[in-house]
Amino acid sequence: MVKIKVWSTNVDVLNDFTGRIVDIAKKTGVKLSGPIPLPTKRLSIRTLKLPHGEGKKKYEKWEMRIHKRLLYIAADERVMKQLIRLRVPPEIWMEIEL
Question: What's the domain of life for this entry (predicted)?
């Protein structure tokens, strides 16, 4: 089995990309498990809003969400060649373990 871990900050692009991987696996007829959604990681930063004057301190909150998907595909040479040719968008990170 090949373990494919895909993550991105843009959930729409992530779902589209995992859909393309699923289509490749279904066309070749190999065994597929997933995409399994993993918990979303939230990174948040609070910064002091300037200028805040003489009164109350005001803060801005910035948040970035990292969405993850996990796929298991049966190891097949045809599928691996198609996955290598697949164009990965710049906002997606992918990890493949054999």
Answer: Archaea
* Domain assignment of residue 42, given as a range: 2-97
Say how many domains are in the chain.
Answer: 1
CATH of residue 77 = 3.30.70.600
Q: At what angle do helices 11-28 and 77-85 cross, to 10 degrees?
A: 150
For residue 27, what is the enclosing H or E element?
helix 11-28
The string of pLDDT tens digits covering residues 21-55 is 898 888 888 888 888 999 999 999 988 877 766 76
Q: pTM for the complete prediction?
A: 0.76
Q: Which helix (H) or strand (E) segment is 49 a member of?
A: none
Instruction: Give the burial string for 36-48 (b: 16+ CB within 10 Å, else e).
Output: eeeeeeeeeeeee
CB atoms within 10 A of CB 95: 10
Residues 98 and 81: their CA atoms lie apart, in Å, by 14
